[in-house]
Amino acid sequence: MEEQGEALQIICLQTSLTQYHYQSYPILKQYFLERIRLSIKSESTRTTDNSFNEIRAERPTLVILPECTGTWLYLMCVPMPTFLRNYFFNNHNSKYNRQILFISYTLLTHMRLFCKEIYRNYHSKTSWLGLIKRAWFSLFADQTSTIYKRLFSELSLETNSTIVAGSNFAYENLQKRKFYNMSCVFEPKHGSICLQSGKRYPVQDEISFIDCYENRPLVYSIPNTNIDIGVLVCADSWMPQVYEQYNKIQFSSKRRFLFIIVALNIGHWKIPWPGYDSSVDPPNDVDKNHLNTFSLPNAWFHYAINRGFDSLDRRNDLIGYGVVCCQGILNIMNDIQAQGESIILVKRSKTEEKLLFEAKTCEDERIMKCEF
Questions:
Q1: Which CATH architecture has domain 9-371?
Q2: Which Gene3D superfamilies match (predicted)?
Q3: Of the candidates 235, 251, 221, which has an alpha carbon nearest to the alpha carbon of residue 62?
Q4: pTM over 0.85
Q5: Cβ proximity of 242 and 200 under 8 Å
Q6: Which is it for strands 16-18 and 329-332: parallel, antiparallel or unpaired?
């Protein structure tokens, strides 16, 4: 008889974030806290405001957030007068792009530190554009990493949930030699990092300023369940080589496995698929007839979600498996915008049919839940 362990509640938060949420730590934390507690509220019979502020998951719970959730934390690291802060962060009705103005203000007030980062990273990248981007994101890398770790550590402790905390541009260690797009998983008992993954195949917008993550893939076993998870950062989920590396990992018997994809699609969502990113060689199984005929959502499902699901389906040592892709919705100062649709595709046992839960909108926030 298969030993299933406790059921895992999966909460996929398709967040809709703007500069308003990133203006201060309390605002951002409260936004995440309220959405996680709304997701687990049905577990409790308590309904008062006081009890809502105390809601914690009563059984194993996995919360997933989109890629780059931590990237925009640098917005709250720039000191400025109140009138400027109101101009940049609190005017929801503005039709003007203000990100360039924000960057200009930041460089004017931090020029010495920016030049220092340019000098320190001079040999890291070949192009000047890549050097400038790396120096910019390096400027507040230590501060954003500290905020990122504190924020999601507190959220995991306060909600008793395992949290896949999107990703953040960060240095791997104190030597500051490798700069990655990294995703961390926080466990609920101590709020510590229990798994760390990095982007192995940066896309064209990233390849000029971040490094390719080369550490071997790791998995995390969620306590009180028989479920292991592996985290893929966005475009890595399209690459067969990534799944080949995971297939080398041996699991104990009677285990289940989930690929967690944290993703962010910059730009419009419902457009024809232009093909693989030009920064990588496309896999050999790409059908040329799909170029500009598949929609981007169809391509994501066919070449990323199904690729991960099929790689698990071919294994004989798993009694259940699935793929969760969490996309984000974004509008930072009307300049950096992103759309997407989140998907949960799971098979709880070998005899069960696939179960698909898909977001019905790419323009608004949405909470998707299921048990596994």
A1: 4-Layer Sandwich (3.60)
A2: Carbon-nitrogen hydrolase (3.60.110.10)
A3: 221
A4: yes
A5: yes
A6: parallel
